[in-house]
Amino acid sequence: MNERQARHEIAAIAKSLFDRGLTHGSTGNISVKLSDGWLVTPTGSSMGRLEPEQISKLDREGNLISGDPPSKEAPLHLAIYQQRASSNAIVHLHSTCSVALSLLKGLDEEDLIPPLTAYYAMRVGKLPLVPYFAPGDKALAEAVKRFSGKHHAMLLAHHGPIVAGSSLSAAVDATEELEATAKLFLSVYHHQYRTLSADQLADLRDKFPIRA
């Protein structure tokens, strides 16, 4: 898509996420690659009241070209793009159930959610926990960069999910699937539950490769 289309799509999706309670206040950010750089939502902005022309345009090194100043978490997006040439969009939210999941003790930090549903396995796959660093800390971007070589979806400890996709719709779908499955996992966490088998997972991954 061209820059104008991308700006309008980011604004529309941001409002949808905000209106459905998947982000709040001035939290969360979205980015989309362009042929001559990338777009990211601006710092201090509400995703529920975002005008397309406000959206920050950056060059490939992360320098501001036009629009408002970018989110302080733009370095997280740049770190992922540098590792994942196939990824063309990224969604980062502070969605409640995913953040709650990042606070639980005793989970496998290399893969936080077991394979509870086919669509989670198809759209998210493995979900590692990225250690806590303060928002905007350069060390957080470096940690995300290390994880993103192998994972398109990550959960930042005490912070929220960050998910890359081959398109903005793919990144949004995976982010929504992650939040829904985090809610499901929290509801069964203290109970006995079944997961998909290794054979079932292998079959899904063969038939439905993740678009990231």
Task: Write a structural description.
It is globular and about 50 Å long. Strands 4-3-2-1-5-8-7-6 form an eight-stranded mixed β-sheet, with helices on both faces. The chain has helices at 3-19, 74-83, 96-103, 118-123, 138-148, 168-188, 198-207, and strands at 29-34, 37-40, 56-58, 64-66, 89-92, 129-130, 153-156, 160-165. With 212 residues, it is an alpha+beta fold. Helix content is 39%, strand content 15%. It has seven helices and eight strands.
Summarize the helix and strand pattern as letters. Answer: HEEEEHEHHEHEEHH
Mean pLDDT: 95
Report the sheet-strand fraction: 15-25%
- As a whole number of angstroms, the C-alpha radius of gyration is 17 Å
- General form: globular
Instruction: Give the neighbour order of strands across the main sheet.
Output: 4-3-2-1-5-8-7-6
**Count of DSSP-assigned helices:** 7
Helicity range:
25-40%
Runs with pLDDT <50, length 5+? none
Structural class: alpha+beta
SS elements, strand count: 8
Give the biggest sheet: 8 strands, mixed
Cα separation of the termini: 17 Å
